[in-house]
Known about the structure:
This protein has a domain at 1-77 and 193-247: 3-Layer(aba) Sandwich (Rossmann fold), CATH 3.40.50. It contains 11 helices and 10 strands. It has helices spanning 40-47, 70-75, 93-100, 102-105, 114-124, 126-130, 141-153, 171-186, 198-203, 222-227, 229-236; strands spanning 2-11, 14-24, 29-33, 55-60, 63-64, 78-81, 159-163, 191-195, 207-212, 215-221. The two termini are 23 Å apart.
Amino acid sequence: MLSVDRLCVGYGGAGVLHGVSLRVPKGQVVSLLGGRGAGKTTALRAIAGMVSPSAGRISFGGEDVTGVPAFRLSRKGLAYASEGRRACPGLTVHDNLLLGAFARLSGTRPREELDQDMARVLVHFPRLRQRQNELAGTLSGGEQQMLAMARALMLSPAIVLLDEPSMGLAPVLVDEVFHIIAQLRREGVTMLLVEQFAAAALKVSDHAYVLENGRIVLEGPAEQLQNDPAVHAAYLGGAAATADPAP
């Protein structure tokens, strides 16, 4: 589904990513873990077409999409739920969700079953269903994070990139967000998840990569990494979350 090979990205002459390679098979959840400043968000932004790599190759659905801009990638079915939520505060929750389906409404993605997809998304996010006619600016931070995730799903995407979905949330909302990710995983939604709460991310993932100083230093099946004492001591000791997603 998604393949990244030897990706290099820099800002203002300073390198951030140094030869990053990863794979996201169809129907799986893959986590990209690491501390603050490791380069996780930069990797997602490069994959999503928001920054241009200086070297390397990105393939999506078997097609070379290196350097393809974000709006074209969304038309191909790549959805990005960015760090910081970025809801349109003057629009209702319902209209924010429709913005996520813009490529479908404009005819560049299949429009069929749009109403069914809206209903399905609101089942996953009952808080949004209750507030769908209210302005997005009145939502709490946790509700806005859920709106960002739900808006990405409205694209009917081939893959969803989730950037720090638990950032700034209270523990009870972290639990809720990871339970939703676990539900989507069971439904076969393909996701690349960037997350600082490594222990919680591994519980909802099939495979994981650890990024350190812009380089992949470790990878493997999520369950293997989660149960490896050495890995836990090195990477998970300070990153455990309260979330306990459904298996």
